[in-house]
Structure formats: structure tokens, C-alpha cells
Amino acid sequence: MPLISVISKAILYVVISVTLIACTAGRSATDAPSNIEHRAIKAADEYLEKERYRDVHKILTAFMEKYPNSEYADDAAYRLAYLHVVYSEDNPYFNYKQAHRKFLEFSGNFPGSRYLYACNNWLKVLNLNLDSNVKNHQGVVYKKDDCDGLKKQVDELKRENQQLREVLKDLESALDR
User: Fold this and answer.
1) What total of structural domains would you count in the chain?
2) Is the same domain home to 101 and 63?
3) What confidence tens digit (pLDDT) does each residue in 70-110 have?
4) Residues 85 and 126 sit within 8 Å (Cβ to Cβ)
5) Do 59 and 7 reside in the same domain of the chain?
6) So what's the pLDDT on residue 108?
7) Using an 8 Å Cβ cutoff, are 174 and 124 in contact?
8) What pTM was computed for the model?
């Protein structure tokens, strides 16, 4: 084999190796699909805290369309259902009947989810509300202001949810170590 051919192959090998190394080095662990998905969920949570409900819905709906089999799909689905029980004049998604339907879907689609306990609690609260509407038989539709008792239950569930989030953060930070 002539020396030029050996040198050409060696140069070609080095160029291919450097290119492959550069391509893989350009990809960081933060760009892995699960991290991108995790960041989407975090962004939705931040928007929820800022009461930007339309943005939350947009992010989570797009997430479910793009990543239906993600390890975070239950996170997104739960938050979409939860969005319907968040009382605010600025929340166009506030709707107990829709929340009930979404939580039922959630429990059917994610029977092993860590959110199942919270989901079942919401279903209990929503069932109480829907049962009271059915028993009324007078066609009375409850307005947002008529649900003071339910609001207290929701506030308690929010506190419990916040405690669970803090526990999850602690567990996540322990796992990251």
C-alpha cells in the first residue's frame, strides 16, 4: 500500500473521529428528551404560579400531543385536569364538570401514577359537588361564589399538594446526589 494511501486513510479516520466527538460533545445531558420534557412541566408549573392559565394549557396540551408516552405524561395530564379546579376569575378553564371528566380519564389512563391519590381526592370533592347539583332537582347552577365549602376543601387539597411537591423535590434532590 502506498504511503499516500495510508496517510489519506489516517487523515480520514482522524477527521471522522473528530467529527463524531464534536457531534456528541455538542449534545449535553440537559438536552436529553426526558430533561426537555421535565423542563416543559416545570415551565407549566411556573406559569400556573403566575396565574397564566392559557399558557399552562397551551404548554401541557402541546406536551401531551408531542410526548404521549413520556415518563412525564402523567404529570402533564394531572396538571391539565387540575387546571379545571383552579378558581380564578382569570382562569377560562375553571369548570367542575370538565375537571371531573379529566380526573376520571386520568385515573383510567394512569392507574399507577404517583398523582393517583391526589386525583382520587379531587374526584371525591367533585363528586360531592356534582351530587349536590343532582339532588337539588331545581335546575340551580352553582356560581363560583356559591362554592365556599368546596373552596375550603380545595384550599386544603392545595396545601396537601404543596407538601407533596416539597417531598418530591426533596426526593428528586436526593436522587440527583
Assistant:
1) 2
2) yes
3) 999 999 999 999 999 998 899 999 999 999 999 999 999 99
4) yes
5) no
6) 94
7) no
8) 0.58
